[in-house]
Amino acid sequence: MRTQPDTVARPEAQAQPVIEMRDISITFGAVRALDGVSVRLFPGEVHALMGENGAGKSTLIKALTGVYTIDAGTVLVGGEQHEFHSPAASQAAGISTVYQEVNLVPNLTVAENMLLGREPRRFGSINVREMNRRARRTLLHLGIDIDPRTVLDEHPIAVQQLVAIARAVDVEAKVLILDEPTSSLDADEVEKLFTVMRRLRDEGVAIVFVSHFLDQIYEIADRMTILRNGRLVEERMVADTTQLELVRLMIGRELEVLDRLDREAPHTESGSGTPLLKAVGLGRRNSLEATDLELFEGEVVGIAGLLGSGRTELARLLFGADTADSGELAVRSHRRKLRSPRHAIDRNIAFSSEDRKAEGVVGDLTVADNMLLALQASRGWLRPIPQATRTRLVKDYIEALDIRPADPHALMRHLSGGNQQKVLLARWLITEPEILILDEPTRGIDIGAKAQIQAKVAELAAQGLSVVFISAELEEVLRLSDRLVVMRDRRKIHEQTNDDVSVRDVLEIIAGEAREGETRA
Amino acid sequence: MLRHQLLWPVLALLVLLAVNVIAKPAFLDVRMQDGHLYGNVIDIMRNSAPVMLVALGMTLVIATRGIDLSVGAIAAIAAAVACTRIIGAADEAALSTAVMAMTYAIVVCIVLGAWNGLLVSVLGIQPIIATLILMVAGRGISMAITDGQITTVNNPWFSDLASGFVLTLPLAFLVAVGMVVFTALLTRRTALGMLIEAVGINPEASRLAGVRARTIIWTVYAFSGLCAGLAGLVIAANTNSVNANSLGLWIELDAILAVVIGGTSLMGGRFSLAGTFVGALFIAALARTIPNIGIPSEVNYLFKAVVVIAVCLLQSPKARALLRVRRPGAPTLANGVTA
Amino acid sequence: MSAITVPPSSDRASTWDRVRTYRPPNRYLPIIATAALFVGLFGVGGMRYDGLTDPQVLLSLLIDNAFLIVLGVGMTFVILTGGIDLSVGSVVALSTMIAAKTLELGWSPYASMAAVLATGTLLGLLMGLLIHYFDIQPFIATLAGLFLARGITYLISVESISIKDPTFTELAFRTVYLGDYYVRWTAIIALATVAVAAYVLARTRFGRTVYAIGGNEASAMLMGLRVAATKVGVYVISGFCAALAGLLFSLYILSGNSLHAIGMELDAIAAVVIGGTLLTGGRGYVIGSLLGVLVLGIIKTLISFDGTLSSYWIRIITGVLLLAFVIVQRFATRRRA
Amino acid sequence: ESGSGGDDDGTITMGFAQVGAESGWRTANTKSIQETAEAEGIDLKFTDAQGKQENQIQAIRSYIQQKVDVIAFSPVVETGFDAVLQEAKAAGIPVILTDRAVDVEDTSLYETFLGSDFVLEGEKAGEWLVENAKEADVDGDGTVNVVQLEGTTGAAPAIDRAEGFADKIAADDTIEVTASQTGDFTRDGGKQVMESFLQSDDSIDVVFAHNDDMGLGAIEAIEAAGLEPGKDIQIITIDAVKDGMQALADGKINYIVECNPLLGPQLMDLAKKVLDGEEVPERVVTEESAFTQEQAKEVLPDRQY
Ligand SMILES: Nc1ncnc2c1ncn2[C@@H]1O[C@H](COP(=O)(O)OP(=O)(O)OP(=O)(O)O)[C@@H](O)[C@H]1O
Ligand SMILES: Nc1ncnc2c1ncn2[C@@H]1O[C@H](COP(=O)(O)OP(=O)(O)OP(=O)(O)O)[C@@H](O)[C@H]1O
Ligand SMILES: [Mg+2]
Ligand SMILES: [Mg+2]
């Protein structure tokens, strides 16, 4: 797969690092997010930053690009000491960054988002036509076919992530930083991104890449820096490190959870009795065609599909987050229109949204408040959760999901992305739902935690919880689900019990449908 | 964290009092007169009551990311309703007349507040415009009730609401403090406070978590109406009359100022009732400072501007950081943005 | 959207979809609705009251509200970034006072105008710096600005001062005839301000940055935009516009007075919001604000054409008209449910 | 058209642009005008400018567009009406000013001005105090310490009344204004300012309030301080509204200078004369007097407002 000559990719001694960070430390209040971390970036390499949730990867990136002020340590750019004091400064110096949370502005168009700050101009005024044309071209390069004139927030989160990437790769940068760009992309999208990354690497760009998917790291990265608890563990060549070794370096001990992963809980027999949840012809104009779905007790239904295939919309309709234009929904065979999430929650349905930042995190509240929000909401304001129960629940879930920092009073917005995701999961588990709808629950979660969460879902299902599981990562969907629903073009195209279906099978189902569509047309 | 923030408003208040003492050394003197306390401090307490009440409701509204411009008009309506009821009653001076009139006025105000809540939460109209409607129309309604005349009432019980004393302290102040304490218990001993904050910080996330955001927003505006109504009654009782045109004029600005001085952000979210309490005292003390240190009328505004800027700078962590020498290793965010 | 593996055939289908379901982009709906409602109000009024349909009424609306249009323009910039500027009313008063006082002192009219514009801009700059560099909330910083500007006005003079300068009076009375009808220069200046502002917002980097900050300030900062300069810039613009509006106001009433323009900031904010701009920032257009001013103006005109309402009914009816307007607008622009 | 006595149908249409409804005085003024118009069969177009000059100018402009027969208005401020008055003149519509004068170069822009003289009111108050200086020195220390409750800063009545008052008391050097602060023409404002004066100064002999309302507020503050208004501290006010007259009769106020709001009959009379082409004086001062406590008791039963 690698085509570039070795001289560029293995610069070790001869080349000078474009960026070198030495002994960087950053403290937030009592939290030491980075403690004497050093990183070197060489031109023409993909450098992976590795570490668990909260290890300090994002902080390191923000330290480099001038979002945070460095407390101690030096940054060398091209061998000279130079610290950036704002993202604008780092960008001007040729560092192009996609931060972990999609950081675009929702109210402007796709094209504007991509070219903000460097719009093509004619006689001093922005040339809109040219801007749209350029945006469209860059998007197509990445294989994204959307109208650049549409407003960004009309698009699902995955597309927004792609747009953010497109913005970053569109500039002529010396350094490209991608903080978990692939967390909600499907395999196809990831491959397209990698193609672009390889091209840029071959052109001599230094790329920083963060991902919790080890396979992706092994596919694309040349070198990696491993962090743990804000400290530098080691710098390694990817080729010289086995996956197991890497995991050990990241978490600092042998990983038993990973073993457990393969010995997953047995699939339950599904399809018996009356369904717990039954949707008939559920649909919504412009986002989902009429869809049937049944969910039985103790069953995990996985929904597979590509970007924009309508999985999120289906989940939202099942939860009443959006109202359906057509179709019916029955919970325990009571036909009810779900008019609001509140309705759904009262019927013991829980839904964890894919858009953590906009639809999950309540940033200025504490971790404890965030965890207890849904439970408290369903109890009503007059019946506060007793202090003892609060403390116990929060403590239990912080431990169970290994949330770090393990401080219930920390503000939610100060948590790392992956840890926020865990808190949100805890929010729903605490309500003890009968039906749990998870849309990308493992987005941005490290490998250990992912295994924990998967194990937790399997365990709960074994206890009778019914789960709808959506993830861009097909393996994960297949591993967990008893029954598989495949979606495409905003409708269900296939459904089957999961008896050793493989990723390949699913891709073929999707592709087959595509071919059918072609012949029909 | 909020407790720590209280430090600055309290400090500002103390500085203001100190300035007064320097100008008039007897400023803080309090003496006993007719069985109650008498002095500038007592006056400040009493005069702070209306702003404190309005600011109390405003704090909760602001916590949900809203704003209520109609409070002044609602106060005027409350006063108009109560006063016309009192003079229309068979026995103008009776206790029952006062109680009935006030109850009636408060109910009207709750309805008006709920109307604001309806526009904001159900129809989804921006708070500033939704409440602007009542701000404009409300004063007209209040004038219609009093027929544009200053209505003077003679009811000792009603008058006591502003001028009465209980346990040597002004009743109005005790009422306001009572409301603050009641609200603090209501929001902090139940889950209401947390839910209000959640709605203010991230409405969509709260909705998806099952919070009845609409009901909360509604209730909060109704509560603000109630508080504004109480404030209106206190103001009317203070002069035993209602002037529909001037009663509570611009009180919304004072109230918002009190809320912000108290450390609650206008962006919604975390709120501090204790801060609002101090903020309201500050506003009242400021009003007293102007005549006390003999600032000529034409310099009033300038003086206020300087004080407001000074207090805000005092509260701004960035401004304080500039004054202090930067310690190495201190937590600093280059741009104050947490992404 | 799902084009990655989707063959071209479905692309055609989605184009067809797009044509079939075409509606004007959501973001223009508020303006379209406001314009339609304005025309509606005008039409209904025209049927009820003689003389209202006279085109001169419309032109008078522009003449009488020229200063408010300019204020609305400045306010739009500020509100688009998610801020607010309460000081503009006071700055208008201050501007009239500076103009009147400097003229009284025998300054040349041009020096006097320059002094007015410089003062407003400077005040805007000061507030912008307070807001951005000291993290003081816009509401409070500009409230301080309100007190400050009004305070300086009182300091200059508590009594009102007439403007008798020939250049000013000449400018004030100069009219442009359009057939039988006329407008004053002040109205043309106001419309020109709208045009310039619309251009700046739509077609310059500064303008796009204004929208970006309103959309998400933290993101704008991470995207490497010039957040600081832009945020301070909008207050400078608002200060400048307030001073310019103050000049237009001095031409309108040819006097300086410390009691002028009390509460005018609320009119400006109301106009901007009625024009469809979101107070949370990021969405809205200056054209909307122009329409918002005209709507407020037509409400006043309708009431004075009626002429039978007592003082309090005028307020109540104004509130009711505002309410009706806002509700209709709200339903007209409701996002695809 | 002017002088023809109205439209074809003979009724006179008058456009009246009122300042606002900021006080009881003002509403009495409005009422008087509306009632007289109705009684005399004049078609009145009324607008309330809510204290804003720009609103008032817009209203006047709309009257011009509606082609009324005569325009009357109480200017919000004295200056800045030149342009719109010229338009009225160009349209041949006569203009009558009420209550407050305007400051225009060309006095032919309006027919006549009907209203009171604020400076004169202040002077009357000052004169009375000078005459009664001995009794007014309540604490008998040889100086008369006066505190002044000003009207809204910058408002013409506040400025003129203060000026007139200061002019007259200059004649007696035992009289001294020791403190002066705005009470915004409201009772609440008057009360709060007076409270503060009482806290910091116990040698106050006289309160001079720019209107009755502030005076009434001061009474409340004085009573709350355990003093007797009218005796321990003397009070002079301006306006003579009903509540003020009552307090005067009750001995809580010592002297009130009248400022008459009932301009309706005089205004309609002037309007008819103007439209009939009769000569009218450039300035018509309303009939106003001043009241002592005894006079108040006499006239109180007959007061209309
Ligand atoms: N603004 C802040 N205030 C306080 N603590 C913070 C702040 N930002 C980050 N932290 C803390 O710093 C640590 C490192 O966070 P960081 O976001 O760098 O982790 P990460 O390695 O990117 O994790 P993830 O994989 O979950 O994204 C975490 O413990 C986090 O809670
Ligand atoms: N509010 C909306 N307006 C217009 N189109 C929408 C809206 N919401 C969703 N869509 C469209 O509906 C389709 C289904 O989107 P959905 O988010 O459900 O897909 P998904 O399979 O969950 O994809 P993803 O992996 O991006 O989350 C997409 O094409 C999306 O663009
Ligand atoms: Mg991270
Ligand atoms: Mg999705």
TrEMBL record, chain A:
Transmembrane segments: none annotated. CDD domains: ABC_Carb_Monos_I, ABC_Carb_Monos_II. It holds the Pfam family ABC_tran. GO terms for cellular component: plasma membrane. InterPro entries: AAA+_ATPase (IPR003593), ABC_carbohydrate_import_ATPase (IPR050107), ABC_transporter-like_ATP-bd (IPR003439), ABC_transporter-like_CS (IPR017871), P-loop_NTPase (IPR027417). Keywords: ATP-binding, Cell membrane, Membrane, Nucleotide-binding, Repeat, Translocase, Transport. Residues 19-254, 271-514 form the ABC transporter domain. GO terms for molecular function: ATP binding; ATP hydrolysis activity. It is a peripheral membrane protein. It is found in: Cell membrane. The keyword ATP-binding applies. This is Sugar ABC transporter ATP-binding protein. It comes from Nocardioides eburneiflavus.
From TrEMBL, chain B:
GO terms for cellular component: plasma membrane. It is found in: Cell membrane. The chain crosses the membrane at residues 47-64, 71-88, 94-115, 122-145, 165-186, 216-235, 247-266, 273-295. One of its GO terms (molecular function) is transmembrane transporter activity. It comes from the Bacteria. The keyword Transmembrane applies. Keywords: Cell membrane, Membrane, Transmembrane, Transmembrane helix. It is a multi-pass membrane protein. CDD domains: TM_PBP1_transp_AraH_like. This is ABC transporter permease. It comes from Nocardioides eburneiflavus. The lineage of its organism: Bacteria, Bacillati, Actinomycetota, Actinomycetes, Propionibacteriales.
Automatic annotation (TrEMBL), chain C:
Pfam families: BPD_transp_2. It is a multi-pass membrane protein. GO terms for cellular component: plasma membrane. One of its GO terms (molecular function) is transmembrane transporter activity. CDD domains: TM_PBP1_transp_AraH_like. Its main location: membrane. Keywords: Cell membrane, Membrane, Transmembrane, Transmembrane helix. The chain crosses the membrane at residues 28-45, 57-80, 110-132, 139-161, 181-202, 232-253, 259-279, 286-305, 311-332. It is found in: Cell membrane. NCBIfam families: PRK11618.1. PANTHER family: ABC TRANSPORTER PERMEASE PROTEIN YPHD-RELATED-RELATED, INNER MEMBRANE ABC TRANSPORTER PERMEASE PROTEIN YJFF. This is Sugar ABC transporter permease YjfF.
